Amino acid sequence: MRLALGGRPVASAVCVAAAGLELGYFPLAAPALLPLEGLSGATALLLAVALTGCAVHLWTRPARARYGGAAAIVLGLLSYPMANLGGFLLGMVLALIGGSLALAWQPPAQGAE
After folding, report:
1. Helices H, strands E: what count in the chain?
2. Helix axes 90-104, 39-60, angle to 10 degrees
3. Hey, which of 60, 74, 104, 110 has its CA 20 to 30 A from 15?
4. pTM above 0.85?
5. Under a CB-based contact definition with an 8 Å cutoff, are residues 101 and 12 in contact?
6. What would the pLDDT profile of 24-48 be if each residue is shown by its tens digit?
């Protein structure tokens, strides 16, 4: 299955970016409460930044999509115990789907148009 735009894993990059945005939204919704959230809020922000970095990596380096996909899966699994149950499960599920799509993505053949 090739969901790609110009030889890029678009669906996986969009899912991973959405996971990063969703994980980072709730801690940043009320920045004044961020010190009260403690370690969970800071971890959620770090995971959100890392997932967004994975999405950028998937978009800019499509030949190395497996590395970004594997990192997105690991970060998604880490978000469950460390960041609000994985962003209320939505961020974790998006990261797992996006990472799985990146692992399954095949770059187009050299001669194919």
Report:
1. 6, 0
2. 30
3. 110
4. yes
5. yes
6. 998 888 888 888 888 888 899 999 9
